[in-house]
Design a protein that fits this description.
By secondary structure, the chain is an alpha/beta fold. The protein has eight helices and seven strands. The chain is rod-shaped.
Length: 220
C-alpha cells in the first residue's frame, strides 16, 4: 500500500559545473577546427573527386549533429533539479486513515528510519503485534498501532493486553504503542512499569517530522 505524503519538498538544483561547460565548448571548438580543415581539403579535391567530397561532407554533418546532441544532454544534466522527496504524513492525515492504513504508515516510518524486516502483522489473531521490525542495531521492535480519535485515549486495559504478549510471545527487545490520541494516567503508569513505550499524537508527529526519536530510540 502506498503511504500518502501530502507535502513535497523540492530538491535543490545541482550546482553549476564548469567542467561540463568547458567540455562542451572544447568539443564545439574541435568540430569547428575540423570542419574548417575538411572544407579546405574538400574544396581542393572537389573538382577532381566530386563524389568523394559529397560523402565527406555528409559524414561531417552527421558527426556535428552527434556532438550537438551530446552537448544538449550535458547541459540538461547540469540544470536538472534533484529528485523530490515525499514528506512524512502529519498527524491529522494519520487520524483520517483507516486502522489498516495507519499500520502501514507506521511500518513506512520504520523503514524510513533504517529498520529491516519490517512486517505488518495486524489483524485477527495478531496477539497485539501490528508492526514488527528489526532496528538498525539489531533489536526486535514490536509496535501496537491505535488509530483513535483525540478524545479516545489508550487505557490501562489496552496496555495490559499488549504487555502480556509483546515480550513473552513476540520476543520484543523494544515494545511500544503508537497512537493518534494519547494515554490515560493508569495506562501510562502500567506502561512505565512494564517497559512499554508510549507514543501519543505529539510523539508521533515529532517522529514523522524527524524532530523526535523513533520508538526504539526513545528509551535510550
Amino acid at each position: 500500500m502506498t503511504i500518502p505524503g501530502p507535502r513535497e519538498r523540492s530538491g535543490r538544483q545541482s550546482p553549476f559545473s564548469l567542467r561540463h561547460l568547458a567540455l562542451c565548448f572544447g568539443l564545439i571548438a574541435a568540430v569547428i577546427c575540423g570542419a574548417g580543415l575538411t572544407v579546405r581539403a574538400m574544396a581542393a579535391q572537389a573538382a577532381d573527386h566530386p563524389v568523394s567530397a559529397l560523402l565527406t561532407g555528409t559524414a561531417l554533418f552527421v558527426a556535428a549533429a552527434a556532438v550537438l546532441r551530446r552537448r544538449h544532454r550535458l547541459m540538461r544534466a547540469v540544470a536538472a533539479p534533484a529528485p523530490t522527496v515525499a514528506a512524512p504524513c502529519p498527524t491529522p492525515a494519520y487520524e483520517s486513515m483507516s486502522p489498516d492504513e495507519f499500520e502501514e504508515a507506521v511500518a513506512w516510518l520504520c523503514r524510513r528510519d533504517g529498520c529491516s524486516e519490517v512486517e505488518v502483522t495486524g489483524g485477527a489473531g495478531d496477539l497485539g503485534a501490528d508492526v514488527v521490525a528489526t532496528a538498525p542495531d539489531g533489536r526486535r521492535v514490536v509496535i501496537q498501532c491505535k488509530r483513535y480519535s483525540p478524545d479516545h485515549k489508550v487505557g490501562s486495559q489496552d496496555l495490559q493486553r499488549f504487555g502480556g504478549t509483546c515480550f513473552a510471545v513476540h520476543g520484543a527487545h523494544t515494545a511500544a504503542v503508537v497512537t493518534t490520541s494519547g494515554f490515560t494516567q493508569p495506562g501510562s503508569e502500567y506502561a512505565a512499569q512494564c517497559g512499554i513505550g508510549c507514543f501519543g499524537a505529539e510523539e508521533l508527529a515529532a517522529w514523522a517530522a524527524g524532530t523526535g526519536p523513533s520508538p526504539w530510540d526513545a528509551e535510550r
